[in-house]
Structures are given as structure tokens and as C-alpha cells.
Specification:
With 154 residues, the protein is α+β, with helices and mostly antiparallel strands. The protein has four helices and seven strands, in the order βαβββαβββαα. β6 and β7 form a beta hairpin.
């Protein structure tokens, strides 16, 4: 079983409800077990057009899915929650991103692990530091706590 950390966010509609529904969707997916979750935090949007604040959090799951299968499961949950494709950094009803998948480093046309911008994003590292502070980023070799502290100090 692999340990995978997922970022969850929403800034359209009932944001907290949308995020809770994403967690329920993960729990209801055969082959995925939610093991831990952070609180949900209100955060400012990064990039994109003017838009409402987000609610963001992180869950840790255990799964036998490959990274690609995990991505497809997350995309199914997003679709079930009525996510529509939009431009990068635009508002969305739900967003589920694979942040870390064990210590895998992967780059394909549709998936990059670890998430390519997670080390720069307070809204990701805050929740990840809550559930996995001692996990090491497989590229930078720093703990999530160290990455979080560096972003907080900026």
C-alpha cells in the first residue's frame, strides 16, 4: 500500500461542503482509505482572475492504486462534484491534487509528482505540515515542516 497526500480546495459555492464531499468521495472509493486529514483553512487565491477565497486542506490516504489510477479516481470525484474544466488558477468548485505519492518522482503529460508548486504554496504546506510534518520532499530532501517554515517566513 502506498501513502499518498492529496490537496483539496474549493472556492465556488459552499466551499467547506464541497471539500467534505471530496473527502467522502475518497472514502467511498474502493482501493482508497483516508488515514488522516488536516483542518480546512480559508486562503487567498494565488494567480488567476479576481476570485473568492478558497477553503483548502490535505488528506493522507493509503491505496494500492498506481499514481495514474489515483489521478483517475480524483478526477472521477471532481466530475461527480460537477467540476468543469477551467483555465489554470481559475475558480473551481473542487480541486483534488496529488501532492506526494510515497517518495515517487514522476513526470508525464498529465501528472507530475511531487506536485510541482507545492513547495512554494502556503495553502498546501499548512495542511500538509499538520498531517505529515516529518515527511521528506523527494526532490528537495527537506521535511514538510522545513518547507512550511520557509514559506511562512516570506
Amino acid at each position: 500500500m502506498s501513502v499518498v497526500y492529496l490537496g483539496i480546495g474549493s472556492n465556488i459555492g459552499d466551499k467547506e461542503y464541497n471539500c467534505e464531499q471530496a473527502v467522502r468521495g475518497l472514502n467511498g472509493t474502493g482501493g482508497i482509505k483516508v488515514e488522516m486529514r488536516s483542518a480546512f483553512y480559508r486562503t487567498k487565491p494565488v494567480g488567476g482572475p479576481p476570485q473568492e477565497d478558497y477553503i483548502n486542506g490535505v488528506v493522507g490516504i493509503k491505496t494500492g492504486f498506481s499514481p495514474q489510477e489515483c489521478l483517475r479516481a480524483c478526477e472521477r470525484i471532481e466530475k461527480d462534484l460537477k467540476r468543469e474544466k477551467s483555465a489554470k488558477d481559475h475558480p473551481r468548485i473542487i480541486d483534488i491534487d496529488i501532492l506526494l505519492y510515497d517518495d515517487v518522482i514522476l513526470r508525464t503529460d498529465d501528472l507530475t509528482i511531487p506536485h510541482p508548486r507545492m513547495h512554494e504554496r502556503y495553502f498546501v504546506l499548512r495542511g500538509l505540515a499538520e498531517v505529515a510534518p516529518d515527511v521528506r520532499h523527494p526532490v528537495f530532501k527537506e521535511t514538510i515542516r522545513e518547507l512550511y517554515e520557509a514559506v511562512r517566513e516570506r
